[in-house]
Amino acid sequence: MTPPPATQNAALTAPINIVATRPPWNQTFSSLKIRNYRIFASANLVAVIAVWMQRVAQDWMVLELSGSVTAVGITVFMQFIPSLVLMPLGGILADRYSKRLILMISQGSAGLLATTMAVLALTGNLEVWHIYVIAFVLGLVVVADQPARQVFVNELVGPRQLRNAISLNSSIFQMGGMIGPAVSGILITAVGGGWAFAANAVACSVTVGSLVFIRPEELVKMAPAKRSKGQLMEGVRYALSKPTIFWPAVMAGFFAVFGLSLAVLMAAYANNVFDAGAGGYGLLNTLVALGALAGALASTRIAVLRLRTVISAAGAYGIVLMFASLSPNMVTFGAVMVVAGFASLLFLTNSNQLVQMSTNVLIRGRVMSLYIMVLIGGQALGGPLMGWLAEHVGVQWAMLVAGGMPALAAATIGITLARRGQLRLRVNLRSLRQPLFIVPRAIQ
């Protein structure tokens, strides 16, 4: 599977931010010097903590109400299937209309859905089918929200600070992932999961308020795309024509279907293997987020965006999950989850950066919607699949598959790129730290 030759439109690309050396430590948070991004990032941290709280509470309540890991996978399917089908439409909206306005509407809608879930849960009327329906509607909201959110970061900070802002966004997401699951686990045990949904409703209101305080005159705005026929296919052709977009998207597909179903498998491990309960499930999510935060911060230290870094990180994540399937106890499993989180975010952050920086700003909304469609839509397929495997084949075997498929895909893509003359594998038996690594093939 190889992308077609580059087209003329493929040349219309924002320059990739390449520097010769790693940025100094005092530039790790450089994008926070921009007022609008500071406001957005602060509200985003609150929102992400609440989203993680709701995510853990939602998965655990489905497991409690149904007693089925497959049901947890179905919930994931319902939430992400709109992205698999409709996400390109969200990209067209992001290219045509105000990203700030789209985010205000989408976050307001998400707040109403969280309020509904909270009322149903706190009154004792929540049933599994309620969660399925609300998860599906929330998935429709995500279709509009995610492409606009990705492109809006460029408007907040401009192209010079885009890579740093993407890395910090990932760091914020993982900080929320450290705090949210732990708090949610405590809430579920102490007073019930309904309060996690209520907290998310409040957080959505905070996000809408932060968008009101952003100064529109300080945004780095691009002219909106005019309505015309074939805009969606233009984005598809553009993405297929560029290896730095095509290959990360292919890798993201395998990564999403198998590797990003980790939450479903951790619920099964906490409930069925280690008998750790909701608190244990929250702890495992926190440990993954701890490693992921380190991975996101590490991505700010990478001087040059490389395709081989993206593919290697995905392969490393797969190998780590394969080791996780052999974990004999909760302590070992938790330690491996930290490493898994690190490798996961190193892939996700660098892949996102490479795709965005390789895409012309005039078409970035459509290209990012296609990338997000693969990444999020893959989870719609992977959630039920991995849940079924965990329930009927065994959670250890499901974890082995979850890691083995991304590792195999990374190896296949690496060999394909090597055969095309772009990369080659070098073996260095003198180095225990990095005995195998990928380097550019020397020009003959």
Protein model, in words:
The chain contains 14 helices and two strands. The protein has 444 residues and is mainly α. The protein has one domain (28-220, 231-440): MFS general substrate transporter like domains (Growth Hormone, Chain: A, Up-down Bundle), CATH 1.20.1250.20. The protein has a two-stranded antiparallel sheet. Strand 1 (423-427) and strand 2 (436-440) form a beta hairpin. The radius of gyration is 21 Å and the shape is globular. The model is unreliable at 1-20 (pLDDT under 50).
* Rounded Rg: 21 Å
The secondary-structure element order is HHHHHHHHHHHHHHEE
Within CATH, the superfamily carries the name: MFS general substrate transporter like domains
CATH level-1 class: Mainly Alpha
Largest sheet, strands/sense/barrel: 2 strands, antiparallel
Number of domains: 1
- List segments where confidence is low: pLDDT < 50 over at least 5 consecutive residues: 1-20
Trace the largest sheet across and list its strands: 1-2
Portion in strands: under 5%
Structural category is mainly alpha
Structure annotation, total helices: 14
Number of strands: 2
What is the helix content?
over 70%
The backbone outline, from C-alpha atoms, is globular
Report the mean per-residue pLDDT as an integer: 79
CATH topology-level fold name: Growth Hormone, Chain: A
* CATH architecture label: Up-down Bundle
What's the end-to-end separation, in Å? 26 Å
Protein name: MFS transporter
Transmembrane segments: 39-57, 69-89, 101-122, 128-144, 165-188, 194-214, 245-270, 276-298, 305-324, 330-349, 370-390, 396-418
Keywords: Cell membrane, Membrane, Transmembrane, Transmembrane helix, Transport
Subcellular location: Cell membrane
